[in-house]
Amino acid sequence: MEVVIRPNAGAAADLVAQVIARAMRSNPQLVMGLATGNTMESVYARLVQLHGEEGLDFSACRTFNLDEYVGLPGDHANSYRHYMNRHLFMHVNIQLRNTHLPDGMAADLVAECANYERLIAGNGGIDLQLLGIGQNGHLGFNEPLSALRSRTRVKVLSPVTRAQNAPLFPEPDLVPQRAITMGVGSILDCRRCVLLATGEEKAAIVAKAVEGPITSMISATALQLHPECTLILDEAAGSKLKESEYYHWVFENQPEWEPFRAGPLLVTKNGFQTGHPPEKKTVEAMSDISE
Ligand code: GLP
């Protein structure tokens, strides 16, 4: 696991989008695992911007979302299908037939879960899984006591999760009680995981997920078992980490982060930073100019 701490939420979301964009450019048929939630909205907005301004091409990529509420049809304003269409799919050149979410309206939910696993495997597995984290440390809807080897299945939502998601519904009681979610084991099978968390309210759970013991009470702790997992945080979400100095040092010094370090200069109206600072002139180049 590695942790990257960026100065603010915009820079953290921008870095996640840049990591995704780089993976898409090196493999246009990338199989992406997608997440929902407020935190992800900035990532999708940035990807839409990269599509518009730099031609980031979604035409051959395939996507699988982590979860969907049971009982909400795809055209329901609170379904995750609706969220994905609204925040990403409608604004880029993705083929809708290549976008997948579990069907929360399926007559046979057990068969739907098995089918979802088969579909992921049939597409060669997930190359890059984007993750958020719930207040209780869930990934997707892997609520406390989710088995660390669990696969896609129906999970009953905890009161904490229902309360956290209630503001998005017209009334708290309308938050569904169950959801289909990829399991912790399904997530650990993805080739790379990138988790984004921002804001002070995530600081305590992030510290437990990163530096605490692995426990099925907090499914995000299972990411410690994943060989290629990056957590991208803003300063607020990383504020309770004991080893933050070390995490900063790795990002600032390790070559794999070099392409992502060049600090963007411009801040656009939606808060995203774009463009790169003028290249620092090397001593050689400077002497060329003076000659
Ligand atoms: C929901 C999703 C999770 C997501 C979480 C975080 O519960 N099922 O996948 O990580 O929301 O949401 P937010 O970004 O709004 O804090």
Feature tags:
single chain, 291 residues, 10 helices, seven-stranded parallel beta sheet, alpha/beta, 12 strands, globular, disordered C terminus, binds 2-amino-2-deoxy-6-O-phosphono-alpha-D-glucopyranose
Could you characterize what this model shows?
It is a single chain. The chain is built from ten helices and twelve strands. The chain starts with a strand and ends with a helix. Helix 1 (9-26) packs across helix 2. Strand 11 (266-267) and strand 12 (273-274) form a beta hairpin. The chain has 291 residues and is of the alpha/beta class. It has helices at residues 9-26, 38-54, 80-87, 109-122, 159-165, 184-188, 203-211, 244-253, 258-261, 283-290, and strands at residues 2-6, 31-34, 62-65, 67-69, 99-100, 128-131, 153-156, 178-181, 192-197, 229-234, 266-267, 273-274. The radius of gyration is 20 Å and the shape is globular. Bound molecules: 2-amino-2-deoxy-6-O-phosphono-alpha-D-glucopyranose. 2-amino-2-deoxy-6-O-phosphono-alpha-D-glucopyranose (GLP) binds next to helix 2 and helix 5.
Describe the SSE topology.
Layout: E1 2-6, H1 9-26, E2 31-34, H2 38-54, E3 62-65, E4 67-69, H3 80-87, E5 99-100, H4 109-122, E6 128-131, E7 153-156, H5 159-165, E8 178-181, H6 184-188, E9 192-197, H7 203-211, E10 229-234, H8 244-253, H9 258-261, E11 266-267, E12 273-274, H10 283-290
Parallel strand pairs: 1-10, 2-3, 2-6, 3-5, 6-9, 9-10
Antiparallel strand pairs: 4-8, 7-8, 11-12
